[in-house]
Amino acid sequence: MQEVGLCRYLLQKVNDDSSVSDDERQNAANWFYAAVGLALIPPAIVSDTWVQAMDDFTPDHRAAINSNDYIVSAYIDQSCSLFQVNIWNVQDAIVQNLPRINNSVEGYNSRVGKIFPTHPHIYRFIELLRTEHSFQQHKAE
User: Fold this and answer.
1) Distance between CA atoms of 75 and 53, rounded to whole angstroms?
2) Which top-level group of life is the source organism from (predicted)?
3) Are 19 and 7 in contact (CB under 8 A)?
4) Cβ(85)–Cβ(46) under 8 Å?
């Protein structure tokens, strides 16, 4: 029997694909979302949350277990991790409405892209510029 690739757990079911059950697929999705969500939760609960997610949702697949090992050694185990939680966790930035990336120019560009519509009317554009100026001035103070 051919081994099913890990991506089969995460991709949508196609035709008569019965190699992965719906429950296994949902667990794999929850496992993936838990990994992504670690950057968004309070740093104090990152370790416990990931341990719980691994216990509850890890797909029964060698690649998933290898991924868990890597995530723990690189991000979770603070005694020996490559990247400390305060480097990659952006929960504090979200709460304080700050850019979630280290490159402030990219963060500002992202913010402006969300605020300004693609082709605003000139008066709306001026109004948005004034609002952004006030925000940046207040932030600088």
Assistant:
1) 15
2) Eukaryota
3) no
4) yes
Structure-block tokens of residue 80:
């020996």
Tokens of 7: 């991506």
Q: Which domain holds residue 30?
A: 6-92
Residues 16 and 59 in one domain: yes
Give phi and psi for 49, each to the nearest 5. Answer: -65, -45
pLDDT, tens digit (0-9, with 9 covering 90-100), for 68-79: 999 999 999 989
Any domain includes 1? no
Residues 77, 37 share a domain: yes
Q: Are residues 68 and 106 in the same domain?
A: no
- What is the average pLDDT value for the chain, to the nearest integer? 84
Whether 22 contacts 34, CB under 8 Å: no
- The SS3 assignment for 119 reads coil
Helical (H) or strand (E) element with 125: helix 122-140
Query: How many domains in the chain?
Result: 2
| Separation of alpha carbons 35 and 54, rounded Å | 9
Structure tokens at 1: 């029997």
Q: Which two tokens stand for residue 75?
A: 């991000």
pLDDT tens-digit readout, 87-133: 899 999 888 887 666 677 777 888 888 888 888 899 998 999 999 89
